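Bumping with the actual sequence this time:
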Amino acid sequence: MSVNNEGFIQIDDLDQHAADTHRPTIAERQRVDYREIAKEVGRLGEGKTYFIRTHGCQMNEHDTEIMSGMLEEMGYTPAREMYDADFILYNTCAVRENAEDKVWGNLGTLKPYKAKNPNLIIGLCGCMAQEEVVRERIRTTHPHVDIVFGTHNVHVLPSLVEQAHHSKLTIFDVWDAAHDGTIENLPKVRKDDVRAWVNIQYGCNKFCTYCIVPFTRGEERSRLPQDVIEEIKQLAAEGYKEITLLGQNVNDYGIDLEGVDFADLLELAAGVDGIERIRFTTSNPWNFTDKLIDTIARHKQIPNFIHLPVQSGSSQVLRRMKRGYTREEYLDLVSRIKTRIPDVALTTDIIVGFPGETEEQFQETVSLLEEVRYEGAFTFVYSPRAGTPATRLPDDVSEEDKKKRLYRLNEVQDGISLEQNQKLVGHVLNVLVECESKNNADVLQARTESNKLVHIEGAKTLIGQMIHVKVTEAKTWYLRGEVLPQGVIV
């Protein structure tokens, strides 16, 4: 196996690298080609429509693209409205209680539709389906649901739909992580013509005390680098300009493979011609290495944008969360990133009201915002998840205090975000034009390298182009800009 001067695997050496790996890996032992399975898929969906309601993270969004691809191979076409569909599927999230409550409410509204149309097929999948308590509730109170399957066997959807055509009983097909692996060459109906998601890693081994994901998504499994790069090459050939590498913890990529890590994979991806931007999410501060920082800094295709979840600014709270780092260690990482990538844009995730969080510890989180000066933050009130270790801690922060802290935190971050954006007024930025604005057909939506949204006016032919814009106005969550003459970069 050969490596270049920086210690990275050469893209042309991928097949040889696989041959040089003597120990079979988990991913290699359990790798399945969907095209072999798909030979048995019929066209039961001819003349029928489907609708998928998606809740949760980008992983769920991408799973929906995959399931849409499988359904359309069966002959289904997308329905404009959910209640007009012949097959309705809820792709669910279990991270917070309110996400689950929405699903239960929506499932309840389908009962009369099922009564009027017994041929309607209703399905539930995603993280909620991995929970036994959810499956039991389906059995007892929602028998109108026809199929239930989890996060580890999305690829069996066509066979489940086929079974549902011949069964009046709810079909449960939920796999344990122990039987899991990676499935390659899955069909996809991508929702975007410019940007695309690429799964590189599944599951999480971190077991933060508040988080349900390791229980619903299973242990970490990495796709082989050959498969990832081949998918990126195909996307480039189809004209995609930006890809986002997806995983519950992307910087653990390669933990179950020999001789390759996430920095290596980024290096390989940056060598694919035609891709202008390579983003990734989500990363964990615990193992964000200097090698990874250097790789981001070295390649112009990798934007100066990092989403770096902190969750709390208090070392005591972080310890109870089992995050694996202290406030000081997190700030040291931020310092190293900013030193190597001076114009980096950072965003984060924060939970307020975690069990035992005092007012003083909350103030440490506020001060962390002010010290790091994030471009934005996704903030949440702590939501107990059944089966997680945090539920054994006394939930001693009142709901009123949780809401007040969330409001105060958002007020501080909104001010910082606006100040950061105002610094860009008058500057010329390189943006990728993504699509028409959802709220105004005369406005185009573009995005900067640092992931800031920019509203511009221009011809629809600019969509998919990298152009220069001058920022004319700053808001808290977006910018306005004008397209410069000869702004399209050739």
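The tokens above came from a reply further down the thread. The longest strand covers residues 479-488.
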